[in-house]
Design goal:
It is built from 16 helices and 19 strands. With 578 residues, it is of the alpha/beta class. Its main location: membrane.
Length: 578
């Protein structure tokens, strides 16, 4: 019997007036009780929004066990209702502000502190992501297999079932992967990222990406292994990277239809590829049965872009992009032409794909072969930095500043950089990548995030041989929960403030709660800002069960800035320390 049906009016006597009076009172009580139920539901299901004041001093509740892999912006419950055209539904689609639940994402049952690097390249704990679909479907191709408490990664892939190392040796005959000329790569549709993982020993950092798909958790497996990876789909928008940034682009059976939609996807690859860089495609449509038409179109379009075909070795084709500026305009069957002068090729945050070729003024200066080899390029300001107002001086000052700061973190604040405890690092406000450069000799990799509303300095970061993405921290980040060991936020309040008006665009609570989602249990957060902002950050940190310590900034800096060092506690459902 429902709540309202159990509150039928009771008849007392035969008076019509008396009967109406009790019915009215019962109705009032019913409305009151329903209001109480709704109020309690709102209280115990907190939503994001103006949450800092609401939850100050209160513990944030855990999410349900079904949300262990919560991806707010790649949620199939939302994306399934969207258009399939150009895979629009598989791109980022974030909840509106206030829609996402304000709760702590729990780890799965049996979760353990991750296997340390470099052992994690070859094996991870099964229970940290107990999803066997890839092992079942791709085990015969050497992707991964389960053995006891572990998932093992032999290093294979669909186009290199005998292992990534043998495949890399094959590519080295045509591409200088071991010379120091190439440092940054983009691996499209990467699987579990073994290709990128085995390139690391060649001092090459490949940023591997794949969408959330039927295999479940490809990128989560890659990050658990300690390999640079990112959740991403090439659909209707530019990828969130600057122009002319990657020394090579690799696709191993990524199944991207490069010449479809008037060549939009190959045009996007061209935008991202550094002059003199290499495009490597293994698998369809390269000499693939029943894809002769697509293979012919790919060759013709690459030729229209003046790419030099280096080799076709079986089902692998390799092209080299010209060092000079684009050879367009020219006569070509695809109608390819240069973009107008008002196109900014570095603009790439929620920016629609263009059907024209971006012009870059510094093509020759930042080409492969012109830019310094690794590791010299790490410490030298590139032509892109020189092109910025006072760029060289800012670059050098930023580099020196972060050498001192990182030394202070290690020596005085107990941050475990340089140890097996920290592998995956994120810099939420990277500027020129000074933090990443300062830890380049440590066994870590750094995801450098340049806020989309700040100066677009990410190209300089790539010129240094580092990697990163554009992002707006008023939205969730495109990664799985529990994927980073250390997250650094320099000037966290600037991440939520409008750079022109200074007004707050979103809540500090939301940003720190997102940090908690992507931070591994027992991981470290380092937050720098004014004393007032740090006090607020401490309140939020304590409400999400972090342990906190506040320190003064470096003595020689003379700054009043404070530094919050926080540790995410390891808890399990039901919410207890573990």
């Amino acid at each position: 019997m429902g709540l309202l049906s159990s509150l039928r009016p009771h008849r007392r006597g035969s008076s019509g007036g008396a009967q109406w009076q009790w019915s009215f009172l019962d109705a009032v009580w019913a409305v009151f009780l329903v209001a109480v139920v709704v109020f309690l539901a709102l209280v115990f299901t907190p939503r994001r929004g103006d949450t800092l004041a609401a939850l100050a001093g209160a513990a944030v509740p855990p999410c349900s066990a079904s949300e262990v892999d919560l991806l707010p912006c790649e949620d199939p419950r939302r994306s399934s209702r969207l258009s399939r055209e150009m895979n629009y539904y598989r791109e980022r689609h974030c909840p509106a502000r206030g829609e996402a639940p304000a709760c702590l994402v729990p780890p799965p049952p049996g979760y353990r502190v991750h296997v340390p690097w470099p052992e994690s390249l070859h094996k991870i704990w099964h229970d940290n992501m107990p999803y066997g679909k890839i092992a079942e479907r791709k085990g015969h191709q050497g992707w991964m297999k389960q053995e006891g408490s572990y998932f093992l990664f032999p290093g294979g892939g669909t186009m290199f079932p005998d292992g990534a190392e043998q495949y890399i040796e094959k590519l080295t005959k045509y591409v200088p992967l071991k010379s120091g000329l190439l440092r940054t790569g983009l691996d499209m549709g990467c699987g579990v990222a073994s290709f990128g993982g085995f390139l690391l020993k060649e001092n090459i950092t490949a940023l591997s990406f794949a969408p959330r798909d039927s295999h479940k958790s490809q990128i989560q497996f890659a990050l658990e292994r300690g390999i640079p990876a990112f959740l991403l789909m090439l659909g209707t928008r530019r990828l969130p990277f600057p122009a002319q940034s990657f020394d090579f682009v690799h696709c191993s059976r990524c199944l991207i239809p490069f010449t479809a939609y008037n060549g939009s996807y190959l045009i996007e690859v061209d935008r991202l590829l550094r002059p003199g860089g290499y495009l490597i495609i293994s698998g369809p449509p390269v000499q693939w049965k029943k894809q002769e038409k697509e293979w012919g179109e790919l060759q013709a379009m690459a030729e229209s872009l003046c790419y030099k075909l280096i080799t076709v070795d079986g089902n692998t084709a390799i092209w080299k992009k010209p060092n000079q500026a684009s050879c367009l305009p020219n006569q070509n069957e695809f109608g390819l032409d240069l973009c107008s002068t008002d196109d900014d090729p570095d603009e790439a945050w929620y920016f629609k794909l263009k059907k024209c070729i971006s012009k870059v003024s510094l093509s020759k200066e930042i080409a492969v072969g012109s830019i310094d080899k690794w590791p010299n390029r790490l410490s030298k300001p590139s032509a892109r930095a020189s092109f910025m107002d006072n760029g060289v001086n800012l670059f050098e000052a930023d580099t020196q500043k972060w050498v001192k700061r990182v030394s202070y973190y290690k020596r005085s604040l107990g941050v475990k950089l340089g140890t097996a405890l920290i592998r995956n690092v994120m810099d939420m406000n990277a500027f020129f990548g000074g933090l990443a450069a300062a830890v380049a000799s440590d066994p870590v990799w750094v995801m450098n995030v340049v806020p989309a509303k700040k100066p677009l300095t990410l190209g300089v970061i790539y010129d240094r041989g580092l990697i990163g993405v554009y992002h707006d921290w008023c939205e969730p980040f495109s990664t799985y929960p529990r994927t980073y060991d250390l997250i650094h936020a320099d000037g966290i309040n600037s991440l939520i403030s409008d750079p022109k008006s200074g007004k707050t665009r979103c809540d500090l609570f939301d940003v720190i709660l997102e940090m908690d989602r992507i931070l591994r249990p027992e991981g470290t957060a380092v937050i720098r800002d004014s004393p007032d902002v740090i006090n607020k950050a401490v309140q939020v940190a304590q409400s999400i069960r972090w342990t906190t310590q506040v320190h003064d900034s470096e003595p020689e800096s003379g700054s009043a800035e404070k530094i919050l060092i926080a540790t995410k506690t390891f808890w399990k459902l039901p919410l207890t320390s573990g």
